[in-house]
Amino acid sequence: MRHFNSFTNLVVLCLVFSTTALKATSNRKNGLVYGEAGRIDTFDPFTSHEASGQRLADLIFDGLVSIDSSGKYQPQLATSWKEATDHTSIDLVLRKGVLWHGGKESFDADDVLTTVRLIKSSKSEIPNKERFEVIGSVKKISSHKVRIQFQRALLDPLRVLAFKILPDHVLGTSKALKRESVFAKNPIGTGPYIFVRANDHGEILLKAHSRYFGDKAKIKQIVLKTFSDQSVMAQSLMFNSLDLITYISPRDLPEVMGDRKLSVIPYDALSFTFFAMNTGRGILRDRRVRQAISYAVNRKEMLNAFFGGKGQLISGPFPPTSWAYNLNVKGIAYSPEKSRVLFAQAGLKDIDKDGYLEGPDGESIRLVFKVPLAGESEMVKRMVLAFQNYLRQTGIKVDLQFMDWLVWKNQVIGKRDYDLTIASWSFDDASNISSLFHSSGAHAWGNNFVNFKNDQVDSLLTEAEATSDFEKKRAIYHKIHQVLAQEAPYTYLWTLMHHAAHSSRISGVRIEPFTFFKHVSSWRVR
Amino acid sequence: MNLFILLSAFLMGVSSCSAQWNSFFGRGGVPLLEFQASDGDYFPGVIGSFFEGSEYYSNRYPYLNEAKKNIRLVQIKQLNSAVGAENLNEANLSWSADGMYLSYETVDNNNRKIQVKNLTGDYTRDLYVVSKGSNNFLNGMVNRYVHSYNSGLSWSRGSTQFAFMSNGGVGEYNIYIGAVGVKEEAVLKSPSKDGYANWNPQSNEIAFVSARSGNGDLYLLNVDNKKLARLTKGNEVDIFPQWFPDGRGLVYSSGNASTHNIKVLLRDQDGRWVKHYKVTNWRRDDLRPTVSPDGKLIAFYSSARTQNFNRSMKWNIHVVPLDGKSYSSKELNSMIVARNVVVDLNTGPAWSPDGRKIFYVKNDPKEFNPIFGYDLFTGRVYQLKTGTRMNRDLLISQLGILSFRAQVGVWDRVFVALTNQGLQLQGLNHYLDSRIHYETF
Lengths: 526, 441
What we know:
The structure holds two protein chains of two kinds. By secondary structure, chain A is of the alpha+beta class. Chain A contains 14 helices and 21 strands. Chain A has helices spanning 51-60, 109-120, 168-171, 182-185, 230-238, 253-257, 287-296, 299-307, 336-345, 378-393, 405-414, 434-437, 455-466, 470-487, and strands at 3-4, 31-37, 65-67, 73-75, 78-83, 89-94, 135-142, 145-150, 193-198, 204-208, 221-227, 244-245, 262-268, 271-277, 311-313, 366-373, 397-404, 420-426, 490-503, 506-507, 524-525. In chain A, the strands form four sheets. In chain A, strands 1, 2, 9, 10, 11, 12, 13, 14, 15, 16, 17, 18 and 19 form a 13-stranded mixed sheet that branches. In chain A, strand 9 (193-198) and strand 10 (204-208) form a beta hairpin. In chain A, helix 7 (287-296) runs antiparallel to helix 9 (336-345). The longest helix of chain A has 18 residues, at 470-487. By secondary structure, chain B is mainly β. In chain B, strand 13 (174-179) and strand 14 (182-188) form a beta hairpin. In chain B, the strands form eight sheets. In chain B, strands 1, 2, 4, 31, 32 and 33 form a six-stranded antiparallel sheet that branches. A five-stranded antiparallel sheet of chain B has the order 3-30-29-28-27, with no helix packed on it.
C-alpha cells in the first residue's frame, strides 16, 4: 500500500505544552540535538501527518518487524513468524522481557490486540488508514503468541505488520486514537528513547531507555527542535546550534555540502512524482494524447532546475532500485516534435490558427489541472507553471486550478473531477501497484484515481498477485511496467534523493530510508 | 563585457491599486524634500540609456508631482544570462549603495558564483574563490570534493568594496573582502562558519554571524585595523544582521528552532555598544529584518499562527518603529502591513528609497506569486504587473530600480524594473547626486 505525499510538510501550531524550556538544549554534553522542518503536533506513531512524526516514532516505539535497507524483514517485537500455507494468516512469536517505558509493564500479546483494534477503529484519526484494511483480526494464542488473520491471501504479509505497537496498559480502554488525546501528547513506547516532555517552542526532549531490550543507546538524550523555515534550520546546523538535520532542501544543499565540518548523507525519498491524467475524460481517453503530453514535458530540465538534479528520472511506477523496475523500458524523452505528431494523429489541429489545438469537431480544448496546495508549496507552483508552459508550446491550453490539499483530495480522489493533476506516491514496499492501476480500484476514493482500465494490466496484476514464484512475479511486473509506460496514465517524473546532514560531533551515523533512526543506538557523540 | 538585455517588454503606469488595511501612520509622516527640477529630467542619464522607457515616462509625466505619485512601473527588462549559464538558476540579488552595481548568484550542482555588473555595462565580474590543489581533502576517513560556494554580497558605503561569504573551495566558510578591480581575500579565517556579512553604511566595519565561539553570534570586524569584537553571546542563534543607515545600531533575528525575535544593538557616539533590547518578544518566528532608509522603522517576516491542523504556515510582514521600545503581541498584531507573503530570506522585505513603501511577494498561486507595494503613509496596496511569475528576492536600488528573480521556463532569471521610487524622483536627488558624483562614473 502506498500513500500520498503532499509535497510539503503540514505545519501545525496552536498546541499548548509546558512552557518549561528544555534545559537539555543548552547542555548538549552527551546529547544530540536534531532539527525537523515543520512542527510535530502529535507524538504517537499513527495520528501524525508528517514524516517527522514518523521519525520521532522510530525513537520511541518498536514494530513487530522492521525492514532493513535491502528490504528484508528483521525481528523486532516479534522474534519469529510462520505464515499459513494459504497465506491468509500469520502466527507471530513475541519477544519476552520487553519493558514499556516506565519500567513496570511488560510487552505481551494484549498490546498487539489493542494496537490492531485501535488502528482499525473507524474513529481513529489516522491518515491513510486504508493501509490497515487488509488486516482482519488478531487472536491471542498465548501471552507471547498471536495469530493475525488477513482479509485475503497475502504473499508478503510482513509488509503490513511493520507498524508500531501501542501499550495496552495505557490504551486498553480507549476506543480510538485521537490527535488531541493525552497519549498523543505523552507517548509511551518500548523503543530506545523515552519521551520526557515537549515545550511550547515545539521542542521535544527524549532520554535513553536504559532497559531497552536491544542495543542500549550511547547517546543519553535527544532534543528535537522543529523549524518553521528549512533554510533557518540548515543555518542552525552550520552555526553549531544543531547536530543533525533530517532533511536539506534543494535550495540549501549546495551550501551545506560546501561545509567540510558536516557530513551529508543521501537517502532514497521512497516516493515518485508524476503528472496524472484522468484516462476516463475527454481527449485523455486517447493513449496518443497522453503520450503526446508526456513527450511535451522536459523532465530532465525540470529535475535539474528545481531539484539540482538530485534524483532519477523514471519510466514507470517504481523506483529504479526496485526488483519490479524494468530497466529495459526507456522513459518518454522530451520531444515536442513527437508530441505534435501524436496530437495530430489523435485528430487535434489548430484550426483557427490561434496557437492552440482544437478537437476533431473544432471544439476548443482546455484541460483542467487541479493543483493541491499545502502552505506556500513553492515547488508545486514551479512545476505546474513549467508544465503549463511546456503544453502551451505544443498547443494545449491548461487551466490551472489551485486548491487546498483537502479540497483537492475530495475533487480528485473522491469525485474524479479533473483532467490533470500532480501527486506523488510514497513507497512502504516497492512493488504492489494493484490498487493504483487495476480497474477494480477505479472508483471514488480508490487509489486508481486516473480511472485507468486496461484488460491486459488487470490480468497481469491478478496473475502477479496469485503467484508465489518470485521470478515469475518479477517477469510479470516487468511486463506491467512496459505496458504502463506505453499507456501513459501518468507522466512519470522522478524519484528524488533526500539528504540529511550531521556535524562531526556525531559519529557512527547510519540511516535507513524506511526507518531513519533504526541504528540510533550505535550513534555516538564526541 | 556588456550587460545584455533580452526582453524589452514595456509596461506602463499604475497597476491595480486598492486600499487595504488602515494607513500604517495615517497621513503625514516625514515630509519629503521639495524636488528642484522642473523640466521632467528626473532620471539620471545612466538610467536613460539603460531604460529607454524612462524618456517616455518623463514625457508622459513632465511634472514631478504627478510622476512620483503612487507606485508605477516604467519599464521591465530581463538581464541576459552569462554565456554558459543559460541552464543555471540566478538568485540572491544585491545593489551597491549608490545603485550602480548589481550582483546576483548563479547556482549549479557544483558551484555558486557571484556575478557583479554595473548599470553602465562596462564592468562585469565573477566572484568565485578556489584554492588551488585543495579541492580534495581528507575529512575523517572519507575523501570529499568540496565545491566553491560564494554568497551574500554586501557593499561598502562607497560602493567600491564588498564583502561576501565563501568556502574558498575548501569547505571552510569565511568572510572575504574584495573591491572593484581588486582580487578578493579572506579577512578572517576560522574553521567555524562565518557568514551574513553586512557592511556598515557609514564606516569600514562589517557585522557578521560566526560560530567560532558559540552557535551563531554576531561579530564586528574593523576592516581598517582588522580588529574583531564579539557582539552577542548566548544559546540563541543570532542571524540576519543589518545595520541602521546611520551605522549606530544593528537589528537581527535571534532565537531557536521555530521561535525567533527581533533584537537591536545600539552604540553611543563613541562607538561603544551600550544598549541591547528586544523589539519583539513573542512565540513567533520573526525573520530577516530590514531597516528603513531613514532608520526609523524595521520590516520583517513573522509566522502567523493557524487554526486548522491541516493548514500550513503562513507569513506576514510587520513594520515596527525602531524607538527603543519592546512591543507587545497585541501591538505587533496591529502592525501587519502584508499578509500571506512569500518569505525571502535572501533579501527580506524591500524598502523604497524614500522609506515609505514596502515591496513584497504575495503568496498567491493563481498569479504565481505577484509583486506588491504597500504605501505606509496612505495604506494603499499596489500590485506591480510585471508579467513575471514566481517572483523572489526583491530589492529596490537608490535609483528606484526594482530587481528580483522570476521563473522563465524552468529557470530563475534576474529582472530589473524601473519604477518611480528612486530618490531622484522622490525629491531627495541632491543626496543621490552627491553620492553618484562621489564615485567615478
